[in-house]
Amino acid sequence: MTVVMLMLVVLLKSVESMKLMKFINPSFDHCLTSGHVQRTITDVSRLTCSSACLVDEQCQGFCFLPPDRTCLITHTDQTTVLQALQETAGAVTYFIELKEGFVRKNGNGYRLMQSSVNHGTGRQACWNLGTNMSLPKNEKESQYIREIGKGVTVWALADDDPHEGTWKNTDTDEVLTYVNWMPSEPNGGTGENCVIEATANIKSWIDVSCASSYWYICQYLLY
Ligand SMILES: *[C@@H]1O[C@H](CO)[C@@H](O)[C@H](O)[C@H]1NC(C)=O
User: Fold this and answer.
1) Ligand 1, atom 5: nearest CA belongs to which residue?
2) Ligand 1 contact via 97 beta carbon (within 6 Å)
3) Which end of the chain is more exposed for a tag (fewer CB within 10 A), N or C?
4) What's the mean per-residue pLDDT of the chain?
5) Is residue 27 within 8 Å of residue 85, measured between CB atoms?
6) In terms of C-beta density within 10 A (0-12 exposed, 13-18 middle, 19 or more buried), how is residue 43 classed?
7) What is the CA(172)–ligand 1 centre distance, in A?
């Protein structure tokens, strides 16, 4: 009886700590190689290790070594890490569950789509993955877009058609509360109704024709 109750308490505690996000355990007896370790925390439990990953907005997963209660946190995406895992006796590696090719930045998964398409085609391609074309809602999300975009120019999910000058979310028609225009933008009038982000720049938005071709970033909510 006591054993059963104890197991129940342990189970409930794990569920509580996991409610923010799901971890997948590839169940390898492997740990992260040093090139993929962002941070090492010593003498903690596995639950403390998973919580440390969840509160770290760039954490993609962790490896826990039970014998010496060591926690290794990684910021590298799991596809890269899985190729580099090295054997370490008794280690358990967990990754945050993400769609293929996506990287976690706080509450969202992001993926750079490396094909030049028009605005409508990019939106559709993100929907096909069960995601949306990216649109930063604040300064911090703009920073994430710059990290994912690595200096290339990408579409944003925004336009001002049919009300010239009223910039809105293309999918929801909600008027934007955050914008990040380059100096002297937008300047294209009715000929330039869509938005691109030059991710090398802090102030990055430019209005262009929706029929132009650019790469894009897909984004979805993790929790
Ligand atoms: C896509 O955007 C819509 C509208 O903002 C939102 O309700 C939905 O949760 C988003 N989808 C994903 C998968 O994040």
Assistant:
1) 172
2) no
3) N
4) 90
5) no
6) exposed
7) 9
| The token pair that represents 7 in the structure block | 């197991």
As a whole-number percent, the residues of the chain with pLDDT over 70 amount to 90
79-83, 147-151, 155-159: segment of lowest average pLDDT: 79-83
Q: How far is the CA of 221 from the centre of ligand 1 (A)?
A: 7
- Cα-to-centroid distance, 61 and ligand 1 (Å): 24
- CB within 8 A of 193, min separation 6: which ones? 159, 160, 161, 164, 207, 209, 210
The owner of tokens 């869509």 is 194
Q: In this structure, are residues 21 and 109 in contact, taking their beta carbons and an 8 Å threshold? A: no
Summarised one tens digit per residue, pLDDT across range 59-108 is: 999 999 988 899 999 999 888 888 888 777 788 899 999 999 999 999 99
Distance 131 CA to ligand 1 centre (A): 7
Nearest CA to ligand 1 atom 7: 172
Contact 185, 195 (CB under 8 A): no
Question: Which ligand 1 atom lies nearest to the CA of residue 131?
Answer: 13
